[in-house]
Amino acid sequence: xxxxxxxxALADIARQRSFTERIRAMFAARQAHPAACVDTFGCxxxxxxxxxxxGMLREMGFSFTQEPKEADLVILNTCAVREHAEQRVFGNLGxxxxxxxxxxxxxxxxxxxxxxxxxxxxxxxxxxxxxxxxFGPHALWKFPELLWQVYESHKRVFSVADEHxxxxxxxxxxxxxxxxxxxxxxxxxxxxxxxxxxPYVRGRERSREKDAVLxxxxxxxxxxxxxxxxxGQNVNSYGNDLxxxxxxxxLLSDIDCIPxxxxxxxxxxxxxxxxxxxxxxxxxxxxxxxxxxxxxxxGNDRVLREMNRRYTRAQYxxxxxxxxxKMPGLVLTxxxxxxxxxxxxxxxxxxxxxxxxxxxxxxxxxxxxPRPGTKAAALPDPVPRSEKQKWFDQLLEVQNxxxxxxxxxxxxxxxxxxxxxxxxxxxxxxxxxxEGNRLVRLKGDKALIGRFANVRITDSNTWALYGEAVTE
Length: 472
Ligand code: SF4
Fold this sequence. Notes:
- The chain is α/β, with parallel strands linked by helices.
- It has helices at residues 3-6, 10-29, 44-60, 83-102, 113-116, 118-127, 143-153, 198-202, 210-222, 248-256, 276-284, 301-307, 313-326, 345-358, 385-408, and strands at 35-40, 63-64, 73-78, 107-112, 133-135, 157-159, 180-184, 186-187, 206-207, 227-231, 263-267, 291-293, 331-338, 362-367, 414-422, 430-434, 439-443, 452-460, 465-469.
- Strands 2-1-3-4-5-6 form a six-stranded parallel sheet, sandwiched between helices. A five-stranded mixed barrel has the order 15-16-17-19-18. It has a three-stranded parallel sheet with strand order 7-10-11, sandwiched between helices.
- The longest helix has 24 residues, at 385-408.
- The site of iron/sulfur cluster (SF4) has 10 residues, from helix 8.
């Protein structure tokens, strides 16, 4: 697809603003003060989408509430990655029949990755007739128009056509107040890992123009955000779809030139595009956190092939060794799946041995969950769940010991942390993060919130560090 077809024309964005104005005028004429409840599930990319929905709603005149029963508009912004999350969404949708009974004017909307799945949209159409608007990630930018159609026609609206995907700039965003911000730099995925539904619901890879990304990061730094995470399904594949040689490492270098006291992180990376150039750039750039989330998923080559991951165990280990050599103290995290269809115990133990060998600081661990419509969901899966659970427990045992040891090594050290808020523990009232994104529960003054601080680490466990702020 041509680049010009991927970028939504400014005239089309302006047209959406005219629908925003119509909705605002409609409420103003009724002297109404509408409230919206936006409930977002899943990954940071979806959180960023939720912030755009809120940005558009705010321009329409909506305020926000956490309570569906108080809302004139309820939006469930969903995730399709795990079966459990899907069941929760259907449960929440069912419960909304009651709020709609009390307030028949309430508009109920389902969006996000789940909504883009044909079987989900069909089920909602047939069995959840109180849902007024359903749209997938492709249609997010035309939310004002879709919502206006609901208000004007009093009919149900579905916008879930399968698409290559697009890039829409200039959509307003409501960001969380505080020190952290997220910037999507690319959308979609070309990889079709056999267990993953994302390429079917978020379209093909599209990178934003570097100037748009740089302008957004600059604005965030100038507004006082101190911890900025660049997002993409495969963030380090940035640029593969752009003309020329400009790649993710080049983007990091350019961002690093923006003056200010801030950290840049990124997620998630794909090992197939994790180059030596990227690690050299991370090592060189002062604003780039020395933290790497590099999902390996399996430590066995046959399983990696079945997963369509396009790297081997040896290649993954080579990348890790290079990155660690370039950045001593690098904090490493990863994603891993146990119990992929057809995986044997010996193959699962290859995963456990890789975890033992690398020594990740933390792992996001999952037992395989089939997603209808993916290749893996059609594979024979003879191993019972109870057996997979045993392998999983072995994995956790190894990883928990690694995390505890990695954290114990911090005790007695001085660390520079970013204090990001209060904690729920009165003994350690502040919450903060190291450059490597390790959680530090902190004794110290609330005035530190929003600032970098030097702390002495006094204690640790498997999941967190504990420390005291040190005044210079
Ligand atoms: S790289 Fe693989 S796991 Fe990641 S979003 Fe794409 S298909 Fe899914």
